[in-house]
Design a protein that fits this description.
By secondary structure, the chain is mainly α. It is built from 3 helices and no strands.
Length: about 90
């Protein structure tokens, strides 16, 4: 992920989401089974909340990846600059 732009990170996470619908559905289904009380409305609400939670979690993952990418890139740039400056002094 290092060196990727925010747009590239968004595209990759979205592509993962679209290409792994079985895992996403299993995750959402797991929430419905945990609270299975025979109430269809409660089960629907639980699945909707799990779906919303998944969307929010993916947005948070995108933000985290973008922030880490920026931080690591700036640290690498600083290390390179320090090494170049040290080499020029010799």
């Amino acid at each position: 992920m290092l060196g990727m732009t925010r747009e590239q990170i968004d595209q990759e996470v979205d592509a993962w989401y679209l290409n792994n619908q079985d895992q996403v559905a299993s995750f959402i289904q797991g929430f419905g089974g945990a609270g299975d009380c025979g109430d269809d409305v409660m089960e629907l609400v639980t699945k909707v909340m799990a779906s919303i939670g998944t969307t929010v979690a993916l947005a948070a993952v995108k933000d985290l990846l973008a922030k880490n990418n920026e931080m690591i890139s700036s640290q690498i740039d600083a290390l390179i600059a320090a090494k170049v400056a040290a080499a020029l002094k010799k």
